[in-house]
Amino acid sequence: MEISRKTFLHRVAAGAFGYALGAPLLSAFAEEAPKPGVKFVDGEQVLPAVPATKSELTGGGPTRFARNGGPGFGRRIAFTFDDGPHPKNTPRVLDILKERNITATFFMIGGNVAHFPDVAKKVAEAGHEIGNHSMTHPQLNRLPAEKVEWEIGQTQENIIQATGVTPVWFRPPYGAFRTDQGPIPAARGLGVVWWTVDPRDWAEPGIPKVTDAILKGTVPGSIILTHDIHKPTVDALPAILDELLARGFEFTNVSGFLGSPYGGPPGTVPPGITPAAPYPPAAIPGAPAAPAAVPAAPEAPVAEPVKA
Ligand SMILES: [Zn+2]
pTM for the complete prediction? Predict the structure, then answer.
């Protein structure tokens, strides 16, 4: 089925539980900027990147916060794809990765998982790690706890239902997350991870600019942020990956760098945190129902925790 990007976003917006987004956001890391008046967006406005403070990376009580793989990782880097799954572009990414035997991490929007559970399942079956990226892509730092809890908890459930995989890493949309909100993802066994290389591909600045930003910015330990919902990103991907491979980089996923955030199997919560109850497998009105029975899928590979 042919589906345009506009149609895709419209479908998502039509069903999303959006919240009014207006004022510019200054977050620890600017990912995509919200378009005022639109409930679900993939970003159109450039915001300045603001370096994270030490407390932003280490605060939040027992919650694990991470920005990169850190030193001591040899030539390893982690490629990440946010905001999918997308019915057309995500399968293309899977093919490109498979041709090169590369593993990656996909931070999925729970609403999109509800619309395209089969695509989410294909990502998991290909052996890639799946992360939690909220239900509707809001600025979570501005929402009350119960809405943040739903954004993360419902997404977690949608991913589990569609793929059989329990995510262990959460990436906040726009990087907008407060350290005092950390216990919410931690109660579902999720660590919070940002990124180190941002080519701003969501603005579709052109293949040369996206390619340059990634190739210039990538060093050992980098976590590279891209978006599998954007066709130009996918078009740029083969040459980018081939050059990184030629430079001797080795691809891992986020857990390949950072391990299990709390040292156990998926769902393990840190000491002092009460595990949150699962959400029912409901999602966006009008979206295809999640499969009643999910065949066993391989868990995301989780490496031993590595001291950074
Ligand atoms: Zn995003």
Answer: 0.76
